Structure formats: C-alpha cells, structure tokens
C-alpha cells in the first residue's frame, strides 16, 4: 500500500461524493459555532424551514464580543443582540451552548481541545479562520464563511477543494527562551505570509515531536498567518495522553480502541507532499514583530529594519513603519510600550500563563503600562487560579479577566487606544486590529510579560535573566 500523509487519509475517509475539479463533498465530524459568524446562518435555516442535521456534533460558545471584566455588562447593542440570537438559536435547534456563566465557556479554539471535542482524524469546521488550531490534534480543521456555516448546519457536509499538501520539517535544537510562538513568527518572517497559500501544512520533525499539545496548537493556530488553510501535526503519544480523561472523551477500553484509530491517521513513513520545506530552529531567537503583518518580525535585541529594496515589498513596509511610528535603525529595546495583552487562541492557555507568570513573579508592571491577562477559557482561568497565577499577575498590577477574544481584535470593550503601542500574544498585527490606529507588536507570553514590567520591548538577555535561563559564566 502506498504511503499516505495525514491530509490524504482524513480527506479520503470523509469524502461523501467526488465533485468536479477536485471539489469533494466532505462529511464534517465537529462543527463549532460562535456568536459573530452564526446569526445569518441560523436565520437561513429558519427561512428554509430546515433543522440542524447533527445538533449532537454542533457546539456553540460566546467569545468574540463578550466584555471580559464582567461578561454580563454588554454596552454594545450589536454584541448583545448577537449573543441573544445565539442563545435563542441554540435553544430552537437543540445545540449545546456554553453560555456566559458556563465553566466550559471560552474561546472556541481553546475549548474544543480542552473539552476533548477535537479528536485526531476528524474534520473540524467553524466560521472562524483560526480553526486551524485544532489541527494540532491531527484533525483537518479549517475556517469557513457564514454561508458554509449554514450548509454544514443543514447537512453536516461541505463542498471543499482538496488542498495541496506541504510538509514543514522543524529540525534542530531550540535555544533557551524560544517558544512555539517565536518559531512560527520566525518561520513566517523567513518564508513570507503567503508561503502556505493553497496548502494544508503538516508540521513534522523532532522539534514538533518534542512539543506539548499547547505548543502545537500555537503553531497550527498561526498557519493562517502563513497563508495556509490548515495546519496539522500527526497524532502521537503526546496527543493521546492529552486527550485521556477529557470530558467528551470516552474512558476505559473504548479509549484504548479510539487511541488506536487516532494513531492510524498519522502520516505513514515515506509519505509524500506537494512541497517540502525544512526550517532549522537552532538559530531562532525570541521574536517580536515591528510591522503590520505577522511576517514583519525580527529577533529581540535587533533594530527596526530598513524597508526592503524589493519594489514589491517596499511601499508596504514604508507604510508599516509610518503606521507603527517607527524609525529604521531604532533598537527595539528602546521602543516604549503602553499596553500589554496576554491571551487569545494563540497564547491564552495554561502553559502560556505559567510562562508569563514566571517572568512577572515578584515584579511590578511599569508605571503607565496597562497590562491584561485574559485566560482563553473558564477552564484555563480556574486552573490558573488554583495554581495561584492570578495572584502573581494581580500583585504585579495586571488586570485578571474573564475569558474571551478580548484585545486580540477590536470587537469588544478591550481596545488599544489610537497611536498607543501594544505588545500582544495574539496572532494578527494588521492596521486597526486592536483598535483604530492601534500599534501591535506580536510576541510570546514571556516576552509580552517582560514588556509590561520594563515598559518597553525587552532584549534577549533580559528575557533569559527574567526566566532564570541566563547563561552563567563557566556553566
Ligand atoms: C470574527 C472572526 C470571523 C475572525 C476570524 O475568522 O478569524 C476572528 O476570529 C479573527 O481572528 O479575525
Ligand atoms: S482570539 Fe483572536 S484569533 Fe482567536 S478566534 Fe478570537 S479573535 Fe480570532
């Protein structure tokens, strides 16, 4: 039998009908729904007199527009109506909704994995581009538009063009202080934000195998920022152990049987891909973006770069420098920071908060910096509180919030004011992303945490020192 990669295996296992031009009708195993991209889809069903085909495979949460100081204090009429609509739709169509006070509520891409809804070998969709996050489990997971949401609600299937496949081999040895976030930012800086266009990326190699599930999620989450539709990691023992005991995962003999099936979806040895890239992480340093797309980044300690001489890139980079209020040649460690946001579906999980807390412990937020920690879910929040992380953040002067997308995007009251500069653990730094004229620097949780303490972007040495990883003489 020919060796197959994971994308081919999942695709073939889910194809209901082969259509024309490589467009196939896929069966969808898991449909996740949030308040922003679902109202019209449900309205469409209602108008057509249809029901939801698999209410038991459809789960809804509230994340994008929810206020995070008190989730019940909606001031925005549209946001309030979207949430009420979702509540009403969940009731009418018999769907499980993790409502505002539900201990299972959170950012859609944080709770799917955390609750054990996302399994290897599944097709997972959501009206949200960062659905790729679930690919960390070896699921084929991708974002869809609202009309497709309606199609999936009605039929539990979706017409999809089969993506080309790309293997991204992460090899080498990680330097201290380098997180999954730094690796994916450095990858996008090296290969460009369009490198994944038309592809589903599978991350392979010893670096990925050694990563925790949470790190793999960060990697897959940002596949979108590399232009790809989906990002995956083949399931292994780490995947299976993460899922064991989760609320929506069976236990006992059924689990062992499931685990066997899950592992069978992993790419076969010798599987081929339409394109293969190798990325040696040995030289990757903790990273930060300076521009207005995630590919415009440099290692900590670098200077703001000169705009590219490439005529295809130069105008955009000049514009980015202007928008960001930066001069080429300025050391990034001299760039002052007004706001720090730790959270989002990229970096709002427990390991992220632990790393940030390690930097923050016993220190104080720099005067004049507004710093927020927004756990990705109620589950993350409660576990972090059980470990006392909330106290570490609060005592340092951070705000400790309820879960939601928060400052990742300007769709709720957590906004970066015009011309203010934020270091953010989220995934997008486009113009206006965190608020009108807001300036966003993407970074890892420990880098963001240290920026809050110092009131500016840190150097690599400062980061290693704060993490207790500084190289001692003679060591
Ligand atoms: C609001 C939603 C449709 C959007 C997305 O699809 O990604 C958001 O989650 C984002 O990150 O920009
Ligand atoms: S946290 Fe940000 S990237 Fe993730 S789903 Fe919410 S808005 Fe999108």
From TrEMBL:
Keywords: 4Fe-4S, Amino-acid biosynthesis, Branched-chain amino acid biosynthesis, Iron, Iron-sulfur, Leucine biosynthesis, Lyase, Metal-binding. Residues 8-455 form the Aconitase/3-isopropylmalate dehydratase large subunit alpha/beta/alpha domain. Binds 1 [4Fe-4S] cluster per subunit. GO terms for biological process: L-leucine biosynthetic process. Transmembrane segments: none annotated. The keyword Isomerase does not apply. InterPro entries: 3-IsopropMal_deHydase_lsu, Acnase/IPM_dHydase_lsu_aba_1/3, Acoase/IPM_deHydtase_lsu_aba, Aconitase_4Fe-4S_BS, Aconitase_4Fe-4S_dom, IPM_dehydratase_rel_enz, IPMI_cat. Belongs to the aconitase/IPM isomerase family. LeuC type 1 subfamily. Heterodimer of LeuC and LeuD. NCBIfam families: leuC, PRK05478.1, PRK12466.1. PANTHER family: 3-ISOPROPYLMALATE DEHYDRATASE, HOMOACONITASE, MITOCHONDRIAL-RELATED. This is 3-isopropylmalate dehydratase large subunit.
């Amino acid at each position: 039998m020919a060796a197959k990669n994971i994308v081919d295996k999942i695709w073939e296992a889910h194809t209901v009908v082969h259509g024309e031009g490589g467009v196939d009708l896929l069966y969808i195993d898991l449909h996740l729904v949030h308040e922003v991209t679902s109202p019209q889809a449900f309205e469409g069903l209602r108008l057509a007199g249809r029901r939801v085909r698999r209410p038991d495979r459809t789960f809804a949460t509230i994340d994008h527009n929810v206020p995070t100081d008190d989730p019940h204090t909606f001031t925005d009429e549209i946001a309030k109506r979207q949430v009420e609509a979702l509540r009403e739709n969940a009731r009418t169509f018999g769907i499980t909704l993790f409502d505002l006070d539900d201990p299972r509520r959170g950012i859609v891409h944080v709770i799917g994995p955390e609750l054990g809804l996302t399994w290897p070998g599944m097709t997972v969709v959501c009206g949200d581009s960062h659905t790729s996050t679930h690919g960390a489990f070896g699921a084929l997971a991708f974002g869809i538009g609202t009309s497709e949401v309606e199609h999936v609600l009605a039929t539990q299937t979706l017409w999809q063009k089969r993506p080309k496949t790309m293997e991204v081999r992460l090899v080498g040895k990680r330097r201290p202080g380098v997180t999954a976030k730094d690796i994916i930012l450095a990858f996008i800086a090296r290969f460009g934000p369009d490198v994944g266009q038309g592809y589903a990326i599978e991350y392979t190699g010893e670096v990925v195998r050694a990563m925790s599930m949470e790190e793999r999620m960060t990697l897959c989450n940002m596949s979108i920022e590399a232009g790809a539709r989906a990002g995956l990691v083949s399931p292994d023992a780490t995947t299976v152990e993460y899922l064991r005991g989760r609320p929506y995962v069976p236990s006992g003999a059924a689990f062992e049987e499931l685990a066997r099936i899950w592992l069978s979806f992993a790419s076969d040895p010798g599987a081929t891909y339409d394109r293969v890239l190798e990325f040696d992480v040995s030289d990757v340093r903790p990273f930060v973006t300076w521009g207005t797309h995630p590919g415009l980044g440099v290692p900590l300690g670098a200077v703001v770069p000169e705009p590219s001489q490439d005529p295809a890139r130069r105008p955009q980079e000049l514009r980015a420098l202007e928008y960001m209020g930066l001069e080429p040649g300025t050391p990034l460690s001299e760039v002052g920071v007004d706001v720090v946001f730790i959270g989002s579906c990229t970096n709002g999980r427990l390991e992220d908060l632990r790393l940030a807390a390690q930097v923050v412990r016993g220190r104080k937020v720099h005067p004049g910096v507004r710093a927020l920690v927004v756990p990705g879910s109620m589950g993350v929040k409660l576990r972090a509180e059980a470990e006392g992380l909330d106290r570490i953040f609060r005592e340092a002067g951070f705000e400790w919030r309820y879960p939601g997308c928060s400052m990742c995007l300007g769709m709720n009251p957590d906004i970066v004011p015009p011309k203010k500069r934020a270091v953010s653990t989220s995934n997008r730094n486009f113009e206006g992303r965190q608020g009108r004229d807001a300036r966003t620097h993407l970074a890892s949780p420990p880098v963001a945490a240290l920026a809050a303490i110092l009131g500016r972007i840190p150097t690599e040495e400062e980061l290693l020192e704060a993490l207790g990883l500084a190289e001692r003489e003679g060591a």
